[in-house]
Write a structure and sequence with these properties.
Helix content is 82%, strand content 0%. The protein has 228 residues and is an all-alpha fold.
């Protein structure tokens, strides 16, 4: 909190002191790491550093720090917690060694950085898992809704089709009964159709009678002649 007797411009000096102290402490705990890069990677590192007015060492340091966090977040959760604990315990010891090399016998080192990273990553994973579960539940609910709508539409179509089928069957039944009745009833013969047959039979009988009469007459004639 800013003091009443201190102006805003004077407070800048306090901030500068704090930044200088933090930078000095950080530099006292920084170790030099020698690495080898191919020409392409070194060229891009130099271009980025030149563009943002930084040294290659500063850019490389920030890149490595960010990459370590990404790698750490990818580790399995059960291993990640143990690795964070081991790294935080080792960090304090390493910081003291680096400080002694830089001529500082006692430093105030705030550890627990990797424990904080672990908690942050765990929180993000839980949030992501919750969102995934909610999305999956929403998809399942949508699928069930569509299936229910399809079944309802199919049932409605079936209910509409059943009366039509019943009406069609009812209209076809009298026609079928009429057809069956016509097939079962024998055809009636008209008098006109039977008269020629009867007439022909009578004519045939009459013709036979005439022939017999003629034959009898012929047989009787010679007998009378001889009788005279």
């Amino acid at each position: 909190m800013q003091d009443i007797d201190t102006t805003s411009t004077q407070s800048l000096i306090d901030r500068y002191y704090q930044e200088e102290k933090a930078k000095r402490e950080m530099e006292q705990t920084l170790a030099t790491v020698t690495t080898r890069l191919d020409a392409s990677d070194l060229a891009m590192l130099s271009i980025i550093a030149k563009r943002f007015h930084k040294s290659r060492e500063e850019v490389a340091q920030e890149i490595l720090s960010s990459a370590l966090v990404d790698l750490f977040a990818r580790v399995d959760a059960s291993e990640r917690k143990l690795m964070a604990r081991d790294a935080d315990e080792a960090a304090k010891s390493i910081a003291n060694e680096i400080a002694e090399e830089n001529g500082v016998h006692s430093i105030e080192f705030k550890g627990g950085a990797w424990g904080n990273h672990d908690r942050t990553v765990t929180k993000l994973e839980r949030k992501k898992a919750k969102l995934d579960d909610e999305a999956e539940a929403a998809i399942e609910a949508e699928v069930q809704k569509r299936v229910a709508a399809a079944l309802e539409a199919q049932q409605s179509t079936s209910d509409t089709a059943e009366p039509s089928d019943s009406q069609q069957e009812a209209s076809e039944q009298p026609a079928a009964e009429e057809t069956a009745l016509e097939e079962a009833t024998p055809e009636e013969t008209t008098p006109e159709e039977t008269t020629p047959e009867v007439t022909t039979a009578e004519e045939a009988a009459s013709a036979d009678t005439d022939i017999q009469t003629e034959d009898s007459a012929e047989e009787s004639e010679p007998a009378s002649m001889f009788a005279n």
